[in-house]
Amino acid sequence: MRTQVAIIGAGPAGLMLGRLLELAGIEAVIIERRSADYVLSRIRAGVLEQGSMALMDRAGVSSRMHKQGLLHEGIELSFDGERHRIDFSALIGRQVMVYGQTEMTRDLMDARAASGALTIYEADDVQLHDFDGATPHVTYRRNGVTQRLDCAVIAGCDGYHGISRQSVPQQALTTFERVYPFGWLGVLVDQPPVAHELIYAHHERGFALCSMRSPSRSRYYVQVPADEQVAAWSDQRFWDELRLRLDPQTAASLVTGPAIEKSIAPLRSFVAEPLRFGALFLAGDAAHIVPPTGAKGLNLAMSDVGSLADALIEWFVEHSPAGINAYSTQVLQRIWKAERFSWWMTSLLHTFPETGPFGRRIQRAEFDYLRGSLAAQQSLAENYVGLE
Ligand code: FAS
Ligand code: PHB
Question: Domain named FAD-binding: which ranges (predicted)?
C-alpha cells in the first residue's frame, strides 16, 4: 500500500492533521495502536484556545462545538481561600471554550469516517523505516499479518509513549525534562459544576481545580503525591479533600455524586528537539508534554498540526520546501512559550514541600502581585487564552 503521508496515532493531533490534509487533497493514512472506542474512553483536556476553535472551524467539524461548547470569559484563582477573577474579556478582549477533548476527537473521527479516509485501528508492532533515506515506510501487524505502508512523509502524532520519537537515533535528539513530585487525581461526575467558570485553587494541603464538561457534567482534580494509587481514594475521601482546599462558600456549594471516571495523571514538562528527521515530523505529545495546569497540552498539539499541515500543503501542492524546512524552529518557539507558562502556573498553584516556608511566601507574593497588577493579569490572560 502507498500513500503521501503516514500519520502515526489517531489522537486529536493525528486526526486533525489527517483532516486538514484531506481538505487540501493530500492523501494520508492514519495508523493507530488502540481501538477507536479506547481512544474515545480516555478523559483528558477540557479547554480550547481560540486557535484550536479556529482549527475546528477550518476542519469543518465545529458545529457541535459551537452548539454545546461553553464560552468562558475568565477563570478564578483561589489562594488559601481568597478568590480573584482573571477577566479575559476585560483584560485582552478574548475568551476560551470549554469543550472536552473526547468530543473534539469524536467530531474528527466522525468526519474521517464519513469521508472514507483510511484509519487502521488496533495496529500492533508499528515500526518506522528509512525516514532518513529514499524509501520512508511504516510496517505494522494486524490480525497477525505484517503490512507495509510506503509514503513520502511520516507524521509522528503518537503521544509521549509512542514509537515515533523513540525511532529517532539517540544522538540526533536532545530532550529537556522536568518531572514534578506530584500528580493530578481527576474525577468526572454527572453533577452541575460548582461555579460558572474554572477555579484554580492553591491551598497548603495542595492544589485543586474545579472544571466542567457541560452544565450537567463536572471535572475536578486534586494534587496528590507522584506515587499515589487511585484505589486509595474513595469518592467520599476525594470530595472531603476537595472541600478542604476550596474557599468555604465554594466548598458549601459543591454538589457531589458517584465518580464516573477516576484517574491519576503524572505531571511533567518535556520537549524533544528538533522536530524533524528527514521525512519524519513530530507533533503533539510525541514532541512535548506540559503539566495540565495551563490547559495547554491539547491546544499546543492543535497548533503544531496546524503549522505542519500548512507546511505539507506547501510542499505537496506548491512544491516549496520552505514550510517543512522551517517547521521545527518555528513550532519550537511557540512550544517553549507554552512550556514556560505551564511551568509558571504549576509553580504558582501547587505545594512544593521541598521549597519550605520561603517557597510558600514567594507563592503568596506572586498571588498578591497578580491581584494588584493589571499588567500581571493581562500577561496571565494572554498566555492562558493562547499567544497569537
Ligand atoms: P495523544 O496521546 O492524545 O494521542 C496519541 C495516539 O497515538 C493515541 O491514540 C495512542 O493510542 C497512539 N499511539 C501511541 N503509540 C502508538 C504506536 N506505537 N503506534 C500507533 N499508535 C500509537 N491537556 C490539556 O490541555 N488539559 C488537560 O486537562 C489534560 N489532561 C490530561 C490527562 C492525561 C492522563 C494525559 C495523558 C494528558 C492530558 N492532557 C491534557 C494532555 C493531552 O490532552 C494531550 O495534550 C493530547 O492528548 C495530545 O494529543 P496527541 O498529540 O494526539 O497525543
Ligand atoms: C479539564 O477540564 O480537564 C481541565 C481544565 C483546565 C486545565 C486542566 C484540565 O488547566
Answer: 2-342
* Contact in structure between 163 and 127 (CB atoms under 8 Å): yes
- Closest ligand, as measured to the CA of 290: 1
Same domain, 192 and 156: no
Residue nearest to atom 26 of ligand 1 (CA): 45
Q: Over the stretch 234-245, which tens digit does the pLDDT of each residue have? A: 999 999 999 999
Ligand 1 pocket test target in 7, 285, 341, 385 with most atoms within 8 Å of CB: 285
* Three-state secondary structure call for residue 226: coil
Place of cell 477507536: 36
Indicate whether 372 belongs to any domain: yes
Q: How many CB atoms lie within 10 A of CB 237?
A: 12
Length of the chain counted residue by residue = 388
Cα-to-centroid distance, 159 and ligand 1 (Å): 5
Is residue 288, in this structure, part of any structural domain at all?
yes
User: How much distance in Å is there from the Cα of 379 to the middle of ligand 2?
Assistant: 19
Q: So which residues are the catalytic ones?
A: 72, 200, 292, 296, 384
Q: How far is the CA of 368 from the centre of ligand 1 (A)?
A: 35
pLDDT at 43: 86
- 262 and 188 housed in the same domain: yes
Give the per-residue pLDDT at 125: 98
d(CA 155, CA 281): 5
Question: In 3D, which of 341, 361, 90, 95 has the Cα closest to residue 202?
Answer: 361
Q: What is the DSSP letter of 383?
A: H
Give the mean model confidence (pLDDT) for residues 296-315: 98
Cα–Cα distance between 187 and 238 in angstroms, integer?
8
Rounded CA gap, 268 and 340, in Å? 12
